[in-house]
Amino acid sequence: MQHHDGVHLRTMRTSRGMSLATLANSAGLSKSEISKLENGVRPFRPDHVIRLAKIFGVGPSDMLSPSSPLRSMLGDSKAETELPLYDGRDLAREGSNATARSKTARPAALRSVAGAYAVTVADLNNAPAFAPGAVLLVNPEATAKVGDLVVNRVSWSPLAFYLRQDDDGGLYGLTLSRKRVELAMDDAEKLHRVVGIWLGD
After folding, report:
1. Cβ atoms within 10 Å, residue 50
2. Of the candidates 190, 158, 188, which has an alpha carbon nearest to the alpha carbon of residue 171?
3. How many beta carbons lie within 10 A of that of residue 31, not counting itself?
4. Most buried residue among 70, 98, 142, 145 by CB atoms closer than 10 A?
5. Angstrom distance (rounded) from CA 140 to CA 103
6. Rounded mean pLDDT for each run of 10 residues along the chain, 201 residues in total
7. At 38, is the secondary structure helix, strand, or coil?
8. 3-state secondary structure at position 192
9. Can you say how many angstroms the Cα of residue 19 is from the centroid of all Cα atoms in its chain?
């Protein structure tokens, strides 16, 4: 039974091009211990699962095979499986004081990201780059770079734009409707990077 968890770990490690030594170093374990876990020689403990899940950026249950006996012990908490969902109109009106209206499923890529959230695009005035009903998945820990789609936490309107740089090195935001939003250099630190989009039905 535990061997299957080891096979799953090896698959996750190799699919990311990670060596045994690299994973061992990141996890604070010996290379020999990682090898024993992968080969089923040593059974997984809950602390192994939690530590490795953080490295791979997934929830604990994603580290386990479907038949693993540890699943019942390490099921994902609500915080790991849901994101707060904000209405874009609330954010445009209230900014950081807005409260989430509901929850939505948290994608695996955002499982270990503190403060991650989702935003519904309610109308074309709010974020003219998207059709109403789109949901933006936001990683506040990811540094916004030129070319990224970002949530505008500087003025909140328009809600989202692409971060651009002019020939003189100045930063600005640009929506798909070609609306330009002027930014100061230190404004880039206030922008939150959009890492995914769910389109409405």
Report:
1. 13
2. 188
3. 14
4. 70
5. 17
6. 71 86 90 91 84 79 75 58 88 89 85 85 56 83 91 90 93 86 91 84 48
7. helix
8. strand
9. 24
- Give every strand in the sheet of 117-120, ordered side by side: 102-105, 82-87, 117-120, 135-139, 192-198, 149-151, 160-165, 171-174, 180-182
Q: What amino acid is encoded at 152 in this protein?
A: N
Q: Are strands 135-139 and 117-120 parallel, antiparallel or unpaired?
A: antiparallel
pTM summary value: 0.59
CA dist 191 and 78 (Å) reads: 26
Residues making up the chain, counted from first to last: 201
3-class state of residue 167 by DSSP:
coil
What is the C-alpha R_g of the chain? 21
Q: Look up residue 128 and give its two tokens.
A: 């003219």
Q: How many CA atoms lie within 13 A of 166 on its CB side?
A: 12
How many of the other CB atoms lie within 10 Å of CB of 42?
A: 16
Tokens of 43: 């059974």
Q: How far apart are CA 119 and CA 137, in angstroms?
A: 7
60 contacts 9 by C-beta, under 8 angstroms = no
Q: The tokens of 93 are what?
A: 């009106």
Distance set, CA 131 to CA 6, 74, 151, 197, 200 (Å): 44, 38, 16, 11, 8
